[in-house]
Structure prediction request, 141 residues.
Amino acid sequence: MSGSNRPLKVFLCYAHSDKELVHKLYNRVTKKAEIEAWLDVEKLQPGQNWEYEIRKAILKSDVVIVCLSRAFNKHHGYRHEELKIALEKSRILSNDIFIIPVRLEECDMPESLHHLHQVDLFKTGGYGRLLRALQGQVKSK
Prediction:
């Protein structure tokens, strides 16, 4: 790894009904030594103020992966607050890749993410494209 020797911090934003798929993604991403992923079910400890910890994790992240699905778009939940925090931080950053929309299945993109290029994990080569984007960010750190 060039630059700093700390791992790339990646936050995973998702609908809880997609937790199995997202957990598989978390496991694949964390196998890379240079990537440290943050997933609520893995990182939150009993008794912690989860809203505070999630906000802190997003703000400390180098990249936020927004795991999109029909369920993500269906109901409003805290994931939409997470997305809002990530979008606020992305406005401060210049042209760095900060938010990566990742579609877990065929679904609409939220209006707030239309300006960003997505990657489809359900299509051949999708995971490899995501990993190349993340590794590109590792190199730029």
